[in-house]
């Protein structure tokens, strides 16, 4: 059975504009079913996080299927309504829970 951290479910807005994070979605929505949807700002641009599956089999590790269908593991932490993500290259960026 695939594990999903229920605290991630919902909508998120990227709050960092680090150059290394430009390829990641500006808006994310995690569904409790294990699917996620990402979009860019402005709409229609390319993002590695366009949509696919997500899981948290290991605490603090988020597995996402990215645009080329590869599953990549990211480190993550939650502090209230702020989601911090570290990609495998060491890029750190944050999202805030959207209301």
Structural features, described:
This is Lipocalin-like domain-containing protein. There is one protein chain. With 99 residues, this protein is mainly β. It has one domain (6-97): Uncharacterised protein PF14869 family, DUF4488 (Lipocalin, Beta Barrel), CATH 2.40.128. It is built from no helices and eight strands. It has strands at residues 10-14, 27-30, 35-39, 51-55, 61-65, 71-79, 82-86, 92-97. Strands 1-2-3-4-5-6-7-8 form an eight-stranded antiparallel β-barrel. The protein is globular, with a radius of gyration of 12 Å. The mean pLDDT is 94.
Question: How are the SSEs placed, and which strands pair?
Answer:
Elements: E1 10-14, E2 27-30, E3 35-39, E4 51-55, E5 61-65, E6 71-79, E7 82-86, E8 92-97
Antiparallel strand pairs: 1-2, 1-8, 2-3, 3-4, 4-5, 5-6, 6-7, 7-8
Key traits:
Lipocalin; 99 residues
Count of separate structural domains: 1
How many separate helices? 0
Element-by-element helix/strand order = EEEEEEEE
- The CATH class is identified as Mainly Beta
Number of strands: 8
Strand order of the largest sheet: 1-2-3-4-5-6-7-8
How many angstroms separate the termini? 30 Å
Secondary-structure-derived class = mainly beta
CATH architecture: Beta Barrel
| Rg calc | 12 Å
Concise account of the structure shown:
With about 100 residues, the chain is mainly β. Helix content is about 0%, strand content about 45%.
